[in-house]
Amino acid sequence: MTTDLLDLESLLTDEERAVRARVRALVDREVRPHIADWFERGHFPRELAPVLGEAGLLGMHLTGHGCAGRSAVEYGIAMQELEAGDSGIRTFVSVQGSLAMTAIAKHGSEEQRQQWLPRMAAGEAIGCFGLTEPGAGSDPGAMTTFARRDGDDWVLDGAKRWIGLASIADVAVIWAQTEEGVRGFLVETSAQGRPTPGFTATPIEPKLSMRASIQCDIVLDGVRVPESARLPEARGLRAPFECLNEARYGIAWGALGAGRDALEVALAYAGEREVFGRPLAGMQLTQARLAEMVLALQQAQLLALHLGRRKDAGLLRPHEISMGKLASCRTAIEIAREARALLGGNGVSLEHSPMRHAANLESVRTYEGTDEVHTLVIGQALTGIAAFRG
């Protein structure tokens, strides 16, 4: 049974459908057979990185230096298929490509791009993106991490929290205040096989969400880097926000993959489960639930596709990304919860995906901007008044 009642398939090009088929096959082969075990054990499969790299999914929206140079719509489609497997796997691709690699590609020097992007695109090197702090989540302008000049070097002190991949990263993109405003730095996490002095990344455990992913606390205690480690084109908060918008755009597509998978599981279950001598799918209340789920899903999918077309045309604005991220996360989490309820007691088992998706989406809904932050971005676009501090 299909969940594409609007025939959105007809709006995709042959090339876009080919990307979808290729990534869906990868997820079916590499993720679905293992994800329940990874989630239960709280394990991120590091060995998946080169597989995703070989498939051209790491930094796939970037061009040059080993990156695939795919369109925004193709990137979005890939994120939807990855998150249908699990939000943690899509998060890895987002942190690596939309955050760390984008920071280097957009704001780095040519030497930095040559040093890192080819290996990161291949999954041979891992990156992380250190912006959020323990006391400055939704307000990165309040960051206290500071970088001071010391001769030809910079010395970084501070802390970051909820930093994806940090404990396995080879390079950390660290954002810090300086006497001249916010700047970005590339901190190699080890040198000549030894940990970089003063840099510590500790996984945050235990977690109830995103268990097949890694999020860390970072401590920077007198970390010394040369001037060549500074991202020369990164000045002010606009630089990290440009990277965040790339990730948020991917989430607008990705979250819907989790929602779609939850709906597909519920639809299949309802067709097989018998209640009072007839299929659960034949009950009016069940059909009402399923109808509401598919209606919400396809509305959000249309929005994501519209945003993708605008991004490819160079027309997408930040508040539109906020609309997509907010709508998709709201939609996906409600579908996952409703699908879990339709499965009854069986829905709490890891044999079925909806409750895992619902738990993951609690994190997806929070990171890269909470509902409240995106609501205020939309409100500012409507009124012309920034109410963040009001």
From TrEMBL:
UniProt-listed Enzyme Commission number(s): 1.3.8.6
Protein family (similarity comment): Belongs to the acyl-CoA dehydrogenase family.
Record's protein name: glutaryl-CoA dehydrogenase (ETF)
Enzyme class: oxidoreductase
Source organism of this protein record: Agrococcus carbonis
Keyword Disulfide bond (UniProt): no
Cyclic nucleotide-binding domain ranges (all copies): 82-157
Keyword field: FAD, Flavoprotein, Oxidoreductase, Transit peptide
Catalytic activity of the protein: glutaryl-CoA + oxidized [electron-transfer flavoprotein] + 2 H(+) = (2E)-butenoyl-CoA + reduced [electron-transfer flavoprotein] + CO2
InterPro entries, alphabetized: Acyl-CoA_DH_CS, Acyl-CoA_Oxase/DH_mid-dom, Acyl-CoA_Oxase/DH_mid-dom_sf, AcylCo_DH-like_C, AcylCo_DH/oxidase_C, AcylCoA_DH/ox_N, AcylCoA_DH/ox_N_sf, AcylCoA_DH/oxidase_NM_dom_sf
